[in-house]
Amino acid sequence: MSVLIKNGRIVTAVDDYQADVFVSGDTVAVIGRNLAIEADQVIDAAGKLVIPGGVDPHTHLEMPFGGTTTSDTFETGTRAAAFGGTTCIVDFAIQTKGTSTLEALETWHGKAAGRTAIDYAFHMVITDMPDERVPEMRRLADEGVTSYKLFMAYPGVLLSDDGTIFRAMRKAGEDGTLVCMHAENGIVIDELVKIALAQGHIEPKYHALTRPTRLEAEGAHRALAIAEVARAPVYIVHLSCYDALQELRMAQARGVMAHAETCPQYLLLDVDCYDEPGFDGAKYVLTPPLREKWNQDELWGGLRTSALDVISTDHCPFCIREQKELGRDDFSQIPNGGPGVENRMSLIYHHGVSGGNITLNRFVELTSTSPAKIFGLFPRKGTIAVGSDADIVIFDPNQEETISRHNARTHHMNIDYSAYEGFKVKGYTETVLSRGKIIVDKGEYLGRPGDGSFVKRGPYGGLYSATRDAARRDILAGGPVLGSPGARG
Length: 489
Ligand code: URP
Ligand code: ZN
Ligand code: ZN
Prior knowledge:
Blueprint: E1 2-11, E2 16-24, E3 27-32, E4 41-44, E5 49-52, E6 54-59, E7 64-65, E8 68-69, H1 74-83, E9 86-94, H2 101-112, E10 119-125, H3 135-142, E11 147-151, H4 162-175, E12 178-182, H5 186-198, H6 205-209, H7 213-230, E13 234-236, H8 242-253, E14 258-262, H9 264-268, H10 295-304, E15 310-311, H11 344-354, H12 360-374, E16 392-402, E17 424-434, E18 437-441, E19 444-445, H13 466-477
Parallel strand pairs: 1-4, 1-5, 6-9, 9-10, 10-11, 11-12, 12-13, 13-14, 14-15
Antiparallel strand pairs: 1-2, 2-3, 5-16, 7-8, 16-17, 17-18, 18-19
Helix pairs in contact: 3-4, 4-7, 7-8
The protein binds N-(aminocarbonyl)-beta-alanine and zinc ion (2 copies).
């Protein structure tokens, strides 16, 4: 099977030029001007952007959480991702406390295999890592799971103590893998939740009021400090606010191998959403919560200056009916999470590129190339180059849509609301190739469950500026952790 994409404007993280792309089988075979090659299918991309498919390194499909399960399955969630221009996700398998992480991986393979529209990979959520289990981390890496998520929040459920975090980071540093950190002080948050409930505050907005930015910053500070002493890289997930961003910047300035992502909800929604009438604020009960609006400019600034490396979605959908409603009388029982896997590319193109916040190349870098590099998928994913997987999006920069759960062109997610209801965007995914197969074309789904495959990821491949590179070499050259003075020592 071959496809010739003609007359498009190819944009990668570093390039921007007019050319044709010839895809043979799964991969890109030839890129050049006016290619005269016979192909099974020819697409005219005149006036369109031809960009690498989005890589979303933070989704939760079919995830048991908060007494229920996220409403998108691997089938529905990956199809929605494809409609939105994302061609690879990294989802989270979750270790059951006291059991093997390899068992958890088997369970998640069972959920996803043969069902996805696009390629997928897994991080492992570690809930328990005594010394005798630490070698499992290497075995996971051999299975292509080269990153782990640990939580500083959700005591008694997901929270890892600092010793566990240190052990996991040390092993990751040795193995060339990566710890992702949910950075929030969950112990203090639980105290604030108890106080709020004791005072009779049950409404969704108390979710935000009991999770102050300082407690996210404290978690980030602690995670970064532990990584520094463990001589390991760290990736802060869903960074939501200026206070945490400042901790990140300070650690990066010390030479810590620190990465972070933010998400569209923190760039485009704010704490006022919790004041929507009735119980509607529950739609935005996600963690960390939405912040005061002024944080948004700071986050865009962090994306521009490369303090922040990635825009993921943290797609974690729960319907209002029967799911969010579990917390109608107690905000702490509302399952945490919100939808977005389908809307990321359009929202960030519109508000980021057209809004003057980031360049077109940076858009590609943040939504595709950087996550592919950091999480060991590059250059198979994250770029358009000869030999790369033909995960390609033909993006119409002029097509306007209104995002709505009632708009069949913008809502294929299995959820009964949109977090971005009524948002107007200019810039829309028209055609999607997943490893050379056209799976979406002009609003029509042409794929089938099982088109996507599990991708074994390579080692952590962090991104460094020249100065950060030098610091990294010093750190990796290593010395004893005991008594380490830190990156400057
Ligand atoms: O609210 C969120 N983000 N739920 C998903 C779990 C997590 O912490 O990423
Ligand atoms: Zn998290
Ligand atoms: Zn998440």
